């Protein structure tokens, strides 16, 4: 089960709405060893057009390598930031250094789907099952499509564990504060 504060859910949704029709992505870090998301990292979707032709060409080459021929298209259309996200490498490394310095880890990795339900695509599953996969991570997906079905806190938001290609949906418990929530001993007020 993912237990997450309401303000973090709203931050995910605000980011997803701001980026729509492009996919949004980011992480929420928490103390190492705890499954308590606390610190929000909005990331830039490197698949989104930047106006820098050389950078876009490098990203497209990277996308072709990562996705391969089998996932290069979505519903007959070449994949783009409308149907795919990838981390900006520099931002991802900066965030990881900040987490390491604070003894944190990425409790939640989130992204939005702009045309499909909040459920992992085969690309999502393949990427989450890669060699750097951490089975503790909660993969949160939100849908910003117009007919999205509200599931959690009024949003089409779902959380999954993805391990070795196996997707397991988990319950999402939205709380106002972690203090006194049933996540183990926690008598320290939230920082945020």
UniProtKB/TrEMBL annotation:
GO MF annotation terms: metalloexopeptidase activity; zinc ion binding
Q: Where is the MPN domain?
A: 2-166
* Domain of life of the source: Bacteria
CDD domains membership: MPN_like
Q: Which Gene3D superfamilies does the protein's record reference?
A: Cytidine Deaminase, domain 2
Known SMART domains for this protein?
Answer: JAB_MPN
Record-linked InterPro entries: JAB_dom_prok, JAMM/MPN+_dom, MPN, VirAsm_ModProt
Does the keyword Protease feature in the UniProt annotation?
Answer: yes
Listed under GO biological process in this entry are: proteolysis
What protein name is recorded for this chain? MPN domain-containing protein
Q: Which organism is it from?
A: Pseudonocardia hydrocarbonoxydans
């Amino acid at each position: 089960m993912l237990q997450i504060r309401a303000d973090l859910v709203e931050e995910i949704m605000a980011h997803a709405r701001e980026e729509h029709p492009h996919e949004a992505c980011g992480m929420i870090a928490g103390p190492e060893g705890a499954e308590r998301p606390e610190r929000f990292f909005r990331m830039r979707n490197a698949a989104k057009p930047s106006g820098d032709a050389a950078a876009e060409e490098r990203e497209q080459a990277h996308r072709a390598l990562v996705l391969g021929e089998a996932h290069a298209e979505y519903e007959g259309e070449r994949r783009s930031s409308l149907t795919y996200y990838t981390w900006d490498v520099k931002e991802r490394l900066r965030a990881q250094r900040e987490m390491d310095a604070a003894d944190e880890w990425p409790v939640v990795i989130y992204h939005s789907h702009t045309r499909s339900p909040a459920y992992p695509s085969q690309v999502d599953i393949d990427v989450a099952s890669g060699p750097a996969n951490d089975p503790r991570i909660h993969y949160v997906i939100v849908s910003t499509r117009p007919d999205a079905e509200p599931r959690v806190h009024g949003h089409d938001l779902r959380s999954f564990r993805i391990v070795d290609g196996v997707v397991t949906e988990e319950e999402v418990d939205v709380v106002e504060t972690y203090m006194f929530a049933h996540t183990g001993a926690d008598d320290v007020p939230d920082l945020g």
